[in-house]
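REQUEST FORM: STRUCTURE PREDICTION
Request ID: SP-0412
Submitted by: Lab K.M.
Chain count: 1
Length (residues): 164
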Amino acid sequence: MRRTPRRWPAWRAWSSWGSWFAALPGLRGALNKMQLARGRAEQPGLAERRRRFRLGLSAEARARWALRLKGYRILAVRVRTPRGEIDLIAKRGNRLAFVEVKARATLEAAQHAITPRQQRRLVNAAELWLGNQLALQGCTLGFDAVFVTPRRWPRHAIDALQPL
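STATUS: Completed
RESULT:
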């Protein structure tokens, strides 16, 4: 009697769940409909929001490098406090700079993007953060801005933000 080789079930032939999932016709459409019914499918605005988030991260990285090349030491990045967020905290000599990074298509648009409300929020967040840093209490404070535009070197504006 001749024995036939044992065959594995079809689902074991694929190496990952993704290829197994793609191999089943109709299952993908059914799962997408279920996700839409539960509100879990990706909304149209979510892709744009992710793109802007990545653009902001890239702008902050470019701003960090520009400040490092100017002699600043980066102490903290993306500091969140209950009063607001500080993009960068940098120190050069005895000067402690709280830096707001703005990425826009033009330099003028980036300069006008910082509102008085945002300036107050940055100052309040800086006061709260500085209250916890005893070693930095004697430094002179500055509220700077770095404006990032496409295909240009980031522009660092010293004391661009006026504490209100």
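NOTES: The mean pLDDT is 82.
Reviewed by: T.R.
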